[in-house]
Design a protein that fits this description.
This protein has 314 residues and is α+β, with helices and mostly antiparallel strands. The chain folds into three domains: 12-82, 2-Layer Sandwich (Alpha-Beta Plaits); 118-195, Alpha-Beta Plaits (2-Layer Sandwich); 199-309, Elongation factor 4, C-terminal domain (Alpha-Beta Plaits). It has eight helices and 17 strands. It has helices at 24-37, 62-76, 132-141, 165-168, 172-179, 222-236, 276-291, 303-309, and strands spanning 12-18, 42-48, 52-59, 80-82, 89-93, 98-101, 113-128, 145-151, 156-164, 185-195, 198-205, 208-209, 215-218, 244-250, 253-260, 293-296, 299-302. Helix 6 (222-236) packs antiparallel against helix 8 (303-309). The radius of gyration is 23 Å and the shape is globular.
Length: 314
């Protein structure tokens, strides 16, 4: 091997699931083919109670993830749902052992954990001085620690921050460009792991946890995530024949809650005793619609709700 060369190591992880469960084998073959000419991404099978059979994939970054997903859809004709990107956490258990977790649903219960460490980056941001305030505000809201600030000229400043990778992988670069009219640039390198007050937030529908929506966040951001996801799902989940509570929880503690009100639609109500073939046609149409639903316990959820709820930009 070349001196100084290191095998590329995935930094961002996401689950990829075929919308049509019958495409699972096609997805496996497509991933194997892509891996032949892109050794920097990894994949292994995983199962989700909400999304079925899929793969947990590791990527070099968000752009790499988007390119791989786009190639799978364009070159192999697959329709995919991807879970929100996450990073690899180092979790120390009560017996002193350390495990690596990149899928929030695999995180042990809080009672088994003594510490959670997350990956950090050393980031350097070049920006026109006019935008210094808004860039500093962005870094602070993403739990950044300022190391130093250097004025390279009266018009340009370089900000050095230490940032958690999890706060950067979602939309940090987009936000940076947006706040600086596209003038700022970002450069970063890995800077080890740091222990922090992190928790897993679970989303429950009618008391059943939905693993696809679980995430690991800093405890100060847990309520915001839980409330946002619960409100978003309330808009997306159609009314059922019974009231559906949507809850966000940390362990056994509920931190946010909303309800989808009960509603029963009688599709044949307008056909006062009339044509039986027309009634059957309407009932069959309703059955077809139900086939496109995922069932979480007693709750039917349209595929579109999963896709919308997992959109990165919302």
């Amino acid at each position: 091997t070349l001196d100084g060369y290191k095998d590329p190591k995935p930094m961002v992880f996401s689950g990829l699931y075929p919308i049509d469960g019958d495409q699972f084998t096609d997805l496996r073959e497509a991933l194997e083919k892509l891996r032949l000419n892109d050794s920097s991404f990894t994949f292994e099978p995983e199962t989700s109670g909400a999304l079925g059979f899929g793969f947990r994939c590791g990527f070099l970054g968000l752009l790499h993830m988007e390119i791989v997903r786009e190639r799978l859809e364009r070159e192999f004709g697959l329709s995919l749902i991807s879970t929100a990107p996450s990073v690899e956490y180092h979790i120390t258990k009560g017996d002193g052992s350390v495990i690596e977790v990149s899928n929030p649903s695999e995180m042990p219960s809080a009672a088994e954990i003594t510490a959670i460490a997350e990956p950090y980056l050393k980031a350097s941001i070049l920006t026109p001085t006019d935008y210094t305030g808004t860039v500093m505000d962005l870094c602070q809201t993403r739990r950044g620690e300022m190391a130093k600030m250097e004025y390279l000229s009266p018009e340009r400043v370089e900000l050095h921050y230490r940032l958690p990778l999890a706060e950067v992988v979602i939309d940090f670069f987009d936000q940076l460009k947006s706040r600086t009219q596209g003038y700022a640039s970002l450069d970063y390198e890995q800077d080890g792991y740091t222990e922090d007050a992190l928790v897993r937030v679970d989303i429950l529908l009618h008391g059943d946890p939905v693993d696809a929506f679980s995430t690991i966040v800093h405890k100060d951001k847990a309520y915001d995530y839980g409330k946002k996801m619960a409100d978003k799902l309330k808009e997306l989940i159609p009314r059922q024949n019974f009231e559906v509570p949507i809850q966000a929880a940390i362990g056994g503690k509920i931190i946010a809650r909303t309800n989808v009100k009960a509603y029963r639609k009688d599709v044949t109500a307008k056909l006062y005793g009339g044509d039986i073939t027309r009634k059957n046609k309407l009932l069959n149409k309703q059955k077809e619609g139900k086939k496109r639903m995922k069932s979480i316990g007693r709750v039917d959820i349209p595929q579109e709700a999963f896709i919308s709820a997992l959109q990165l930009d919302d």
